[in-house]
Amino acid sequence: MIGKDKILRDIFERLYNYFGPQGWWPAESPFEVCLGAILAQNTSWENVKKTIQNLKEEKLLDPYLLYNLSYERLANLIKSSGYYNLKAKRLKNFLKFLLENYAGEIERMRGEDLETLRRKLLEIKGLGPETVDSILLYALDKPIFVIDSYTYRIFYRHNLCPEETTYEELQEIFHTFLPKDVSFFKEYHALLVALGKKFCKKKEPLCKGCPLENLNDL
DNA sequence: TGCCAGGCCGGGT
DNA sequence: ACCCGGCATGGC
Predict the structure, then answer these.
(1) Distance, angstroms, CA A62 to C1' B13?
(2) Nucleotides of C under 7 A from a protein CB
(3) % helix / strand / coil in chain A, to the nearest 5?
(4) A3 vs A26, which has greater pLDDT?
(5) Protein residue closest via CA to C1' of C10
(6) A27-36, A65-74, A84-93, A155-164: lowest mean pLDDT where?
C-alpha cells in the first residue's frame, strides 16, 4: 500500500509536468479575486472575465462604489456571469461585510486567524465553502485547500475517494497529507481545474491521454 | 439543440 | 440530516 502523500505528490507532479505553472488566481488585486470567486459560482470563467472587464471599464472595481449601486444596476453590470439577480445580492452581502468590518480594505482581514475568519465568511449569505476558501487562499494567502466539483470528479473517478465524500472530508485529505504551503496549494488547485476542463468533463468518463492515466500502477 | 460551466440556498421529506 | 429545484448567461 502506497502512502496517500506519495499519490497526492505524484498527481501534482504529473499535472505540473503536463500543464506547467498556472499562476492562479487570474486577477490584478485581492479584491478582484473576491469578486471573481463569487461571480464564478457554477459559471464558466470566460463569462466572469467579461463581467470583471466590464466593471473595470466602468471604473467600479471598488467596494464603496459597488455597494452603493442599486441592485438593478449591479445586476445589469454582472449579467454575463449568469444568476445575476442572485449574485448581485451575494456581492452586496460580501461588500457590506467588508465595509462594516474592515473599512472596505481586504488587507485588514489578512491578520486574522484562519479558522475565525473562515467561520465569519461562511456566515455571509451566498458564500459557501468553495467561495470562502478561494478568498482565503487566493486573496488572503491563507494555507487552505480549495475543493471544487472538478476535484470531486477527478478523485472519485480515480478511486481516490468515495462518491459521497463531503467537502470537508476531501479537503481534510489534502490538509493531512500535504505540507500547508500557500503557493503549493494555489498551484495544485489550479492544476486540478486545468485537468478537469481538459480531461474530466461530465460527459467524457474515459480520460484518454489524461496525465493521470495508470495512476494506480505504481 | 441540449448540456455544461471553478455553487449555494431554501423548502420539502 | 439529506434531497432537490431554482438560479441564467454564453460556448460548443
Answers:
(1) 43
(2) 7-11
(3) 60, 0, 40
(4) A26
(5) A47
(6) A155-164
Residue pLDDT, tens place only, A168-214: 999 999 999 999 999 999 999 999 999 999 999 887 766 778 999 88
Determine the distance between A166 (CA) and C1 (C1') in angstroms: 13
Question: Which pairs with CB-CB distance under 8 Å and at least 24 residues apart come from A79-88?
Answer: A79/A51, A80/A47, A80/A48, A80/A50, A80/A51, A80/A54, A81/A39, A81/A40, A81/A43, A81/A47, A81/A48, A81/A50, A81/A51, A82/A42, A82/A43, A82/A47, A83/A41, A83/A42, A83/A43, A86/A126, A87/A38, A87/A39, A87/A41, A87/A126
Prediction pTM value: 0.96
- The pLDDT of residue A1 is above 60: no
Nucleotides of chain B in contact with protein CB (under 7 A) are 3-10
Contact A119/A159 with Cβ under 8 angstroms? Answer: no
State which H helix or E strand residue A96 sits in: helix A84-102
